[in-house]
Amino acid sequence: MDVINALLNTFVVVLIASTMFAAGLGTTLGALGATFRNVKLVLLVLVANLVLVPLIGWGTAAVLALGTPAYVALVLLACSPGAPFAAKLAMIQRGDVVTGASLQVLLAALGSLTFAPTANAIFTAAQLGGGISLPVGRLVLTVAVLQLLPFAVGLALRNWAPETATQWKAPALNVSNLALLTVLALSLLGSWQQITALVGSLALLAALLFNVVAFGIGTLVASGSLVTRTTAGLLAPARNAGPVFAAVGIAFNNDPEILGALTGILLVGLAVGVAVAAYLARHRPAPETGGEPQAESLGTGSTP
User: Which domain holds residue 111?
Assistant: First the structure.
């Protein structure tokens, strides 16, 4: 088990750093600026993802009276915005890809700073497990360094050496995707009994409810056209797995019950996100020629 934990911690670091480095390699300052000039949309998305979605996660866990491991896993995920997979969902649903990718990058960057304090505040208010408390300072420093520094390096390369960035982007995305698969595999290997026990439990129902409600709230709160609002809506349930796995390792020593619940909830979230995006795409025209390169220019990956 010690070997699995050591490997898991190593690949979590690789997952976080490679994901944000790839995001930086595919992000242009022009695309970011165009999105951020829509101040109303940006503020509404921030409120939805940094305030409302954590409350939805907390409320879902409390109302269904989840056991402590599933409660912890759901709250941690709810507090971690900015999954790169959200940008891929914007492509699948034929949504506003440039806006979705730009907002995802912003949420991932800010989430590295807000994740631990928000989760800790919820755990303190809920008095969960006799007083679970996260090492906020250590988590903020770890996640911020692992996310912001690689992203800054990738962004600098994209804007100062675009040819190099283009060459490095695909390998960086491949490393990110392989790291995610490895993290999930190690989590399954270390907690397969706990994951099996989730079948028929309230944890998977909670994951389903959380994703559906988060998408609804994210869509309703956003501004703009229906396409833009549903793009923002799918940002809400798509949570950033890397910082959560880091928190489980740092604060809970890779507790197999929490890892099992976390893996199960993530898989439900992926299934719901793809299903909703595919449904939306069925009711929208195919993108015009040139739409895909726009999405590609922002380096959308497939990592949750």
Answer: 2-288
